[in-house]
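Tokens as discussed.
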């Protein structure tokens, strides 16, 4: 993690002046318009406390220079601009190799973060739960391990010793790498314990007769605003990327009278580095347990189509099955003009399971809640269940669900005629298998 206090950050007397660069490489163009990508990168920068974002620009390049990313002429032009603006931290919206980072910092006399480093800094600032903090530390160590080639002068030293700290002739970079590996191993052990505890909580929730609705969507799409509207919970809901990092779950009664467990998940984002996807996979595991996925989409954003594609890609990578019911809320229609709003409404009307509305004002949410209730009220059918006389807990669960229509006992077992849904039947099986 970069220490902003050294540069005059939040803990210092002034904010750190930062500048954002989005390299648009002609030989490898991105999926978004460069100006939209720069706007998102600047929003990321604004999400990190301690920074004063002085500005940003798209830098068009024919190709990436292997040693310095930018060519000599552009390098000098940017150096003069950064010096004139008294910039202390440069944020590059894209991958920067360790060698490029070292050379750019030397050429410009500034600190530098690439996209991965910036997102890590935001994650470290936002993570609130024990698991979130551990995931951030693990991801940060993975990132730092790849950066050891930055090699300040002490990394060139040879290390002697007695053999139990570092073998004779072991370089400092090898010792640093080994120390990081050991720390990562400790973190993984701690995460395993946290994951086991969370699985116990999840198993307990399975016994609750409420379906789980997972809110998913691109970061800053309005998930937390919708969550707050339904639950009254004090969840951070700001116009800021990554305002929510840890999954928050609440039991809530929809205006239709339907009881559900609502889960607000971390926002997705494009080009999320692999090490971060892996580190936060557990944070998104709640989505795999969902009975219904509610995709909240910022329909007023210029890159809304690309953002929706990113969300679909992340869900697929998580292994979310196609048979899990999904509903789309095209959010923030209150930010559209009359003509754009009419066009969006027409598009939504032609699509299945798509609703337009505003989580902020509440507009259009009644139809959404009706649809959620309808999706979760599964078709019911009659079945006969035979239980051993010792299966008192399973029998009590069936009665608590209100599905038992009649009961008869013989010498061997108890027979119950039930009228239940597929979801309730699946819950019953899980309870039975868990003993």
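Sequence:
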């Amino acid at each position: 993690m970069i220490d902003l206090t050294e540069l005059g950050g939040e803990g210092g007397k002034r904010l750190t002046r930062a500048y954002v660069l989005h390299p648009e490489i002609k030989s490898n163009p991105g999926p978004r318009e460069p100006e939209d990508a720069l706007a998102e990168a600047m929003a990321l920068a604004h999400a990190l406390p301690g920074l004063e974002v002085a500005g940003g620009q798209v830098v068009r390049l024919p190709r990436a220079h292997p040693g310095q990313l930018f060519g000599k002429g552009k390098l000098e032009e940017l150096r003069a601009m950064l010096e004139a603006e008294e910039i202390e931290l440069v944020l590059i919206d894209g991958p920067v190799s360790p060698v490029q980072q070292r050379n750019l910092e030397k050429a410009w006399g500034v600190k530098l973060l690439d996209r991965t480093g910036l997102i890590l800094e935001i994650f470290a600032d936002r993570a609130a739960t024990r698991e979130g903090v551990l995931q951030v530390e693990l991801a940060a160590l993975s990132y730092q391990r790849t950066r050891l080639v930055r090699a300040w002068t002490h990394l060139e030293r040879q290390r002697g010793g007695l053999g139990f700290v570092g073998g004779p002739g072991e370089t400092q970079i090898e010792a640093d790498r080994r120390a990081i590996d050991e720390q990562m191993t400790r973190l993984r052990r701690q995460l395993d314990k946290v994951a086991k505890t969370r699985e116990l909580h999840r198993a307990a929730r399975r016994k609750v007769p409420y379906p789980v609705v997972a809110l998913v969507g691109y970061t800053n799409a309005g998930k937390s605003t919708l969550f707050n509207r339904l639950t009254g919970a004090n969840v951070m809901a700001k116009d800021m990327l990554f305002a929510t990092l840890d999954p928050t779950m609440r039991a809530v009664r929809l205006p239709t009278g339907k009881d559900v467990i609502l889960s607000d998940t971390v926002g997705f984002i494009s080009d999320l580095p692999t090490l971060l996807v892996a580190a936060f996979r557990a944070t998104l595991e709640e989505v795999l347990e969902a009975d219904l996925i509610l995709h909240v989409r910022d329909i007023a954003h210029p890159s809304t189509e690309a953002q929706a594609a990113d969300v679909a890609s992340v869900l697929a990578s998580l292994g979310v099955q196609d048979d899990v019911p999904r509903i789309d809320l095209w959010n923030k229609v209150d930010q559209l003009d009359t003509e754009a709003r009419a066009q969006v409404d027409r598009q939504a009307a032609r699509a299945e399971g798509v609703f337009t509305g505003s989580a902020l004002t509440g507009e259009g949410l009644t139809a959404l809640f009706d649809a959620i209730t309808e999706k979760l009220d599964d078709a019911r059918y009659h079945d006969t269940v035979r239980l051993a006389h010792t299966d008192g807990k399973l029998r009590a669960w069936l009665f608590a669900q209100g599905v038992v229509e009649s009961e008869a006992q013989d010498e061997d077992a108890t027979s119950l005629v039930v009228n239940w849904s597929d979801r309730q039947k699946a819950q019953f099986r899980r309870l039975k298998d868990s003993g």
